[in-house]
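Subgroup meeting minutes
Present: P.N., E.W., G.H.
Scribe: E.W.

1. P.N. recapped why we're keeping a running log of single-chain structure predictions: easier to compare across weeks, and new members can see raw inputs and outputs side by side.
2. G.H. added today's entry (359 aa).
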Amino acid sequence: MPVTPSVPDDHPRENLADGNPSDGTAAEPTAATSSFTLPPNGAGEAPIAAEPVVRPRRAKLEIPASQASPPPVDADEGTTGPVSRGTGRRVEPMPAPESTRIIVVANQKGGVGKTTTSVNLAAGLALGGLEVLVVDLDPQGNASTALGIEHGQGVRGTYEVLIDGDEIADLVVDSPEAPGLKVLPATVDLAGAEIELVSVVARENKLKRALRSYLSEHPTDYVLLDCPPSLGLLTLNALVAAREVLIPIQCEYYALEGVSQLMTTIDLVMAELNDELQLSTVLLTMFDGRTRLASQVADEVRSYFSEQTLPTVIPRSVRISEAPSYGQTVITYHPDSAGAVSYLEAARELARRGVKENA
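Output recorded in log:
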């Protein structure tokens, strides 16, 4: 009898409870070339064919629909599968700032939720009736993916703005995630921009000048700059162009170690290149309430950044991880999930703080 490996309780499983043989033994794996079918319900009964599922818009593996497994179910997050855009809860209007808020979402540590935070806050603000522009500065183009924007070979975007001097207005694309949400996409060409900018005069001001030209003719409430996980010239351009810094901090120990280095960089930029820059917002991400460490890290961050830390924390959620594979944010993918509710509330807090600061 084959041995079934144990799986941690908090690990998402495929729902095969109804498909196991009646004697409780594990089903034999099928050959890679055969169609996917659920195991028999009992002796003498014919196999039941699995229903086709909706495949992610940007799935990397070409798997026939008949062999694809359905997405896992969170016990506390409703049914499987994506929700059509526009079917979520009604979002009440959010207050608009008096002037454009240009916010750079930065943290040189990877995997802390920078892109996830950028796209979900942007979608939340736009659904609240605000005009939002997302500038994707990461060569991986993950923000473009999550907002439903094509960013393959030949797509013009951030690289052309920084290197060729193209106008942002000619390259922005409307995102299907929300009315009023625009995206300047990033392609893999952006990976070479760091080297190409080295010899350019005033290289750290390229994005600032481009944004100034765009905003002079296109009124925008929020500009969110999604940075790569590094402190290179792309991130430096964002820090010089922005007026505020938003730092997402993962609720784990290693996340704290990189914050001091980022703060040093921010201080240097403020002193030498951009005296308008300020750390305005800290958002706690990937919070797991079952662990004592997550609570300790949250308390540590709140004690150090008492005024900047938003009250809302973003929990660990399968829905947040699934949403980009469908070219959506979690707010439109599963509006009732814990991740969607948290990001929407964080967007509302961000908007309210902007009004208070201008008052």
